[in-house]
Amino acid sequence: MIINANQKLGEVVSIFPRSSEIFNELKVDYCCGGHDSLGEALEEKGLNTEAIVQKLNEEYEKFIESNSEYRDWRKEKPTALIENIIDTHHNFTKRELREIDGLLFKILKVHFNHHGEELMKVHRLFGTLKIELEEHLIKEEENLFPLIEAYEETKDEKYKKAIHKFIKDTEDEHDAAGDILKELEKVTRDFTAPKGACTTFKLTYDKLHLLEKDLFIHIYKENSVLFNMI
């Protein structure tokens, strides 16, 4: 049993990356809640801990037998992980925020008479999320990440002290973004467009869902891996 109920959610995802897909299906928060134990998280959801731990181990065995290669970021240098976070997640988030913003405004105008109440809620929530994420990404790229890189190079304690202050603020911002995403899930019925919705409507909700999934992995890499390296 490689995976057990006492392990932190973030640790489980590091050991078995595809567990994130199972956690997504179960609505288990492994990003902002990455420091929680697997057992506690499943119990809080009222789920069968023993059965799910068994499933995770079975899927892990299949993963190992398939000889799938993956990169265990816990064994890499912080600068390598930072580069991956920016290239893979920051750039994706910036692009998707711009595209979703335009699509959401379009469907709000076109479908206002039939779905105005829902779309106005989505529009407001997304607007808040967009502002917070854009500011958050800039603060990481201009402040936090350079501090981590400087500490990796010099091991100067003054950088470490500054980093830990930024980490607390960054994790709080992660929590705030996570709360908005949970509200968006509720309003959109887990990002499911209304029956008979047009292609653009469905595309907008699909993109919101993809943004959420990527943010989960993004936040996990920071909260559960990068910040533990300091």
What features would you describe in this structure?
It is found in: Cytoplasm. One of its GO terms (cellular component) is cytoplasm. This is Putative scdA protein. This protein is an all-alpha fold. It has two domains: about 10-65, no CATH class; about 75-230. The protein is built from eight helices and no strands. The two termini are about 30 Å apart. The mean pLDDT is about 95.
Query: What is the number of helices?
Result: 8
Number of DSSP E strands: 0
Mind telling me the C-alpha Rg?
19 Å
The amount of helix comes to over 70%
- Give the helices and strands as they follow along the chain: HHHHHHHH
Average of the residue pLDDT scores: 94
Tally the structural domains.
Answer: 2
What fraction of the residues are assigned to beta strands by DSSP?
Answer: under 5%
CA-CA gap between termini: 29 Å
Biggest sheet details: none
Helix-and-strand structural type: mainly alpha
Low-confidence stretches: none
**In one word, what is the shape?**
globular
Task: Considering the chains and any ligands shown, give keywords for the structure.
single chain, 230 residues, mainly alpha, 8 helices
